[in-house]
Design brief:
This protein is globular. Helix content is about 45%, strand content about 20%. By secondary structure, it is of the alpha+beta class. It has one domain: 3-Layer(aba) Sandwich (SMI1/KNR4-like). It is built from five helices and seven strands; from the N terminus they run αβααββαββββα. Helix 1 packs parallel to helix 5 and helix 2 packs parallel to helix 4. Strands 1-2-3-4-5-6-7 form a seven-stranded antiparallel sheet, sandwiched between helices. This is SMI1/KNR4 family protein. It comes from Kitasatospora aureofaciens (Streptomyces aureofaciens).
Length: about 160
């Protein structure tokens, strides 16, 4: 059964909070760690990314929370947050589906890989709204539950950024 849906207003607020925290983090990064930061950024949705999200939706049914996410955010690159977090663009997700298909995850009618971490593990979500992490750097292996909802997943990343 699907969980609570991702609220676009909550997502916009999350993007604003996390973006502000990232700006402060990257400004102080070199002084803190002795080397420059990677590109830590949230890329807002653009006309091109919205078209890419539409093309993904024509290819297969996109989970509602992922559709909401791509209505606000094209991608996220957070290589210096914990082990690294990356939300892939809708164009990248489409390419992944075409090359690898969709992962088989128990309890999900159809799951899409939408992100990864710095170790190459993949994040997937489906129509249940749950977020899964691959146990290996492959869409063919097992996946374990990491969040009950996409909001919970993003909130965890936001807390990591705020604590930097």
């Amino acid at each position: 059964m699907p969980g609570p849906r991702l609220d676009p207003q909550w997502l916009r607020a999350w993007c604003a909070r996390t973006g502000t925290a990232l700006t402060g983090f990257t400004r102080s990064f070199a002084a803190r760690y002795g080397f420059p930061p990677g590109e830590n950024a949230l890329a807002p949705a653009t006309d091109a990314s919205l078209r890419a999200a539409g093309a993904l939706g024509e290819l297969l049914p996109v989970p509602p929370d992922l559709a909401t996410l791509y209505g606000e955010l094209d991608r996220a690159s957070l290589p210096d947050v914990d082990n690294g977090y990356f939300v892939h663009s809708p164009a990248a997700v489409t390419g992944h589906v075409r090359e690898y298909g969709t992962p088989a995850i128990g309890g999900e009618r159809l799951a899409l890989v939408f992100g990864s971490d710095g170790g190459g593990h993949l994040f997937a979500t489906g129509h249940s709204g749950r977020v899964w992490r691959s146990t290996t750097a492959s869409p063919d292996g097992d996946f374990t539950l990491v969040a009950r909802t996409l909001e919970e997943f993003l909130d965890g990343i936001g807390r990591l950024v705020a604590d930097l």
